[in-house]
Amino acid sequence: MDLNKLADLLIPDENVKPLDYYETLYPARDLEKGAEVTRLAPSPTGFIHLGNLFVAIANERIAHQSGGLMYLRIEDTDLKRKVDGAVDAVKNALKYFDIRFDEGAEIEGAENKYAPYYQRERAEIYHAFAKDLIRRGLAYPCFCTEEELSALREQQTEAKKITGYYGEYATCRNLTEEQIYENLKAGKPYVIRLRSQGNAENKLTFRDEIKGDITVTENDQDVVILKSDGIPTYHFAHAIDDHFMRTTVVIRGEEWLASLPIHIELFDVLGFRRPKYGHNCSLQKMDGETRRKLSKRKDPELSLEFYRQEGYFARAVKVYMLTLLNSNFEEWYMKNADVPLEHFKFSINKMGKSGALFDLNKLNDISKNELAKLSEEEMYNFLLAWTNEFGTDTQKTYFADKEYLLKVLTLCMGVGGKKRRKDFTTAKQAMEFISYFFDETFVPTNAYRFEGETVKKILQTFKDLYDAADDSSAWFNKVKAVAEANGFATDMKAYKADPAAFPGSVADVAEMLRVATTGLANTPDLWTIMQILGKERTLARLENAIKAL
Ligand code: GLU
Prior knowledge:
Elements: H1 3-10, H2 19-25, E1 37-40, H3 50-65, E2 69-72, H4 86-96, E3 103-104, H5 123-135, E4 139-142, H6 146-158, H7 177-185, E5 191-194, E6 203-208, E7 212-217, E8 224-226, H8 234-244, E9 249-253, H9 260-270, E10 276-280, E11 283-287, E12 290-293, H10 304-310, H11 314-325, H12 329-335, E13 356-357, H13 360-371, H14 376-390, H15 393-397, H16 402-413, H17 427-433, H18 452-465, H19 472-485, H20 492-497, H21 506-518, H22 526-533, H23 535-548
Parallel strand pairs: 1-2, 2-3, 9-10, 11-13
Antiparallel strand pairs: 4-5, 5-8, 6-7, 11-12
Bound molecules: glutamic acid.
Glutamic acid binds near residues 238 and 256.
């Protein structure tokens, strides 16, 4: 068979150049020895998930820590899954977590010497290599229709055989020259398949950077490399791209492990050296008693958008991801909590071999700790950024009086106190937490644990005595006086010794005042709250509470 003629006919792309041309166009990168080139290669489906962040952090660390670089490649070969604005969504989602790309799709200011970074724009390169494989007898046209392929699948399933297009089932593999030309003449659509040289009887051992030595079965599937519209499949495109973008390490999800034999064969037939591969474990969660993979359908926390919308502090999420990624991170972080995270020495061999357990409660604990390290000014800026994007119009008005809000934050965070308070978990929750400081969002609950009449008397006595000029001890003496006047215990020892002798204690009185002015039974220091609210607002709230009883 005249393979050159066939190749020219099947891939008549006039732009296709000799293969050497691409080697010169995309030369080896001029980097120091040991510098790694990594990439993130998402499909533009619009859904960026925690698994993407998980591998992005690992790839980013490996690249930058070694003096190398990380680039962004968009794997848009599957048009059906493409969503408008998806590339911006990827970039924004990762930017929030401070993941920097040094080059790639839409990365401004970069030299982008290995462009284009969208696979759809690289058709010529894929065609050049597919053409070469046809010439070498390592790829062939396949005219099987969808119907024929699904009938084959059924037949194989019934006979309990491995499904797919291989060996005896790969009918188009053996078409004669005449048959091929006849089909072409008849205008039958075709794909280009790899003529696999592998044998499923053979095992091969592969060194995975994360999982160690793994044994896989050689590929014998004649996988599609170019679809009928001339667009490559992911398998074929990624091998060519990783080679010509001079990728040295690929950290990707373990769902790709199953395709590894195909990738190994493709690199071999293309004559390329493979990058190092590390297949990262999946993120799992406890669902009752069972442990399962995070699911797009069931778990909103899988989407990265969730963390932005909820207003998670990016550093907290990163700290948690690093905790899950490297087994020695947690210990390092205990000793180096205030050091930039980049100082941690990330190592691939400390990455988990099997599923990482993701626990939102653990993340919330980390978030509380991280947020408790901020100054009130930093917290202000963090909340402002979140509110501008996701807050309600009323929440936006909280920022009208910066001095007032800073006082609220200072109190709620315990700035200047002996110990920081850890009441804030996310921006969204913090904005709700402080809502009682603002009349528009203050919700009187009148949720007292005492009879209305008693509460009313207590609130009234306090209101009559209240002086905004009192310092905290003078204020507390008045609370005690109110307690005493109403028969409540002020001596906590005496109260504990015989609680039945009193209707309650001074703590209960303070709680009534708290509920009346904030709607809540638990808050930071009440004297300070009243100071922040100011005289008029405090008196008005007490007055309204009395009226409501
Ligand atoms: N485009 C693939 C994905 O979105 C990337 C796989 C890889 O990193 O090689 O999952």
